[in-house]
Inverse folding.
């Protein structure tokens, strides 16, 4: 990989890491924040829930804004907005102001994460998509895994405000680097005049947000059959169904996310696999810290360190799998990775309360290795088969469904733990739930594209890309 591309990858990943870290860094600080502001845990929970909902709404708008204003402008704007939200969160004077400022952060993070994917995919081109997605996949895995460690360390050593203020030096470096390294956008006259799909935005953004809210409420209520869950879930389903009808009938204004993208078999398979990956990763990041705290008596920081073995495994396998996938395609690597993940999670289902941490951490490390071998090739295959004009829309669809998968994973895991007769039975049930998600991921991996039949250039037409995949 040439040095110029490596520098661009580094500065983009630095900016993207902020949003991914901040999604989980607050998870260990909820009780601290509740004490600091003399607020209830349910109210303080909106510090995380508001952020997640804002991310979901913002992602829906990103595809249009990129086409309208350009990658570079939107990236710089999102970095500035995230920095402003971080500073304001660190200076919050009550729980209400903190929730509002976290929503600002979430709106920016909802732009940063898919923009990171789109910027790197376009810079790499189809021929190098796998290796660049492998590097980016390290950030996608390490961000959520390191969040609890960073949050716990900052709370213990400094003050809760540093959970947010730590973003300031990182964001400034990322912004200055982006000013220098991110390529300039095409002149405005060379970009298509894309009209905003206002009706689509009003349907898909709130629709996904309502589904995510319902799933987060499930974790709080420990059941699906209550109105705080059923009302937003029903509303979300109606809004998304309405968007589906609208998107398929749209004529004058292009839909916010063109559902016809899912007619490309490789794209549909890639998104489905990454949705299953969201279920697996976020389920484990929710369940494992509780296992180490409740069964082994570890504190927040030590539990976070043990859970980080998942991110370490993915960090080791993703760059290698991504690079290899540029030559051999995604299917065989994803199948092998999913098989490793399946064996690893089955091992966890056999462990008990007295199983030494070394064994469970080793199984989690292997699970991360397997997941990394699935994630990087799958994302690379998605960007090899999409036409350049559809990259931003495809990225938004991928990210939203991955978020929904993650929310579903946490909701079901929490429901299993809350309704179990005794703690270890709950953990075994949660591991079996993840086992089912891994089996689905393994089955879907069969549908991913095999080896490319010929080199694919960045300017290859859409039919040629489909044939090459």
């Amino acid at each position: 990989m040439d040095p110029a591309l490596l520098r661009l990858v580094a500065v983009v990943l630095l900016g993207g890491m902020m949003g991914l870290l901040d999604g989980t860094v607050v998870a260990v600080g909820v009780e601290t924040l509740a004490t600091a502001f003399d607020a209830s845990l349910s109210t303080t929970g909106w510090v995380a829930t508001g952020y997640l909902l804002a991310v979901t709404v913002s992602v829906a708008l990103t595809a249009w804004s990129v086409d309208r204003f350009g990658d570079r402008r939107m990236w710089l704007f999102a970095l500035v907005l995230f920095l402003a939200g971080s500073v304001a969160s660190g200076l919050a004077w009550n729980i209400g102001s903190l929730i509002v400022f976290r929503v600002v952060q979430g709106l920016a993070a909802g732009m940063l994460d898919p923009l990171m994917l789109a910027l790197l995919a376009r810079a790499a081109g189809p021929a190098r998509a796998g290796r660049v997605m492998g590097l980016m996949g390290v950030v996608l895995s390490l961000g959520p895994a390191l969040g609890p460690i960073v949050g716990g360390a900052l709370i213990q050593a400094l003050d809760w405000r540093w959970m947010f203020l730590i973003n300031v030096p990182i964001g400034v470096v990322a912004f200055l680097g982006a000013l220098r390294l991110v390529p300039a956008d095409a002149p405005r006259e060379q970009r298509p005049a894309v009209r905003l799909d206002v009706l689509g935005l009003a349907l898909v953004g709130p629709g996904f947000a309502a589904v995510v809210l319902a799933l987060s409420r499930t974790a709080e209520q420990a059941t699906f059959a209550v109105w705080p869950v059923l009302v937003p879930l029903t509303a979300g389903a109606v809004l998304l169904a309405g968007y589906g009808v609208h998107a398929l009938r749209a004529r004058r204004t292009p839909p916010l996310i063109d559902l016809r993208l899912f007619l490309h078999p490789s794209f549909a398979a890639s998104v489905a696999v990454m949705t299953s990956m969201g279920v697996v990763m976020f389920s484990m990041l929710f369940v494992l810290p509780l296992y180490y705290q409740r069964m082994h008596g570890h504190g927040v920081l030590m539990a976070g360190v043990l859970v980080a073995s998942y991110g370490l495994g993915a960090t080791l396998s993703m760059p290698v799998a991504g690079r290899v996938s540029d030559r051999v395609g995604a299917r065989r690597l994803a199948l092998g990775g999913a098989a490793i993940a399946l064996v690893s999670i089955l091992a966890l289902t056999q462990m008990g309360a007295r199983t030494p941490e070394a064994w469970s951490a080793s199984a989690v490390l292997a699970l991360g290795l397997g997941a990394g071998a699935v994630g990087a090739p799958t994302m690379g295959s998605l960007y090899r088969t999409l036409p350049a004009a559809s990259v931003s829309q495809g990225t938004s669809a991928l990210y939203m469904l991955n978020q929904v998968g993650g929310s579903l994973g946490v909701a079901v895991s929490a429901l299993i733990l809350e309704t179990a007769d005794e703690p270890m039975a709950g953990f075994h049930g949660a591991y079996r739930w993840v086992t089912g998600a891994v089996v689905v991921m393994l089955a879907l991996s069969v549908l991913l594209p095999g080896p490319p039949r010929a080199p694919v250039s960045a300017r290859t037409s859409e039919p040629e890309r489909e044939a090459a995949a």
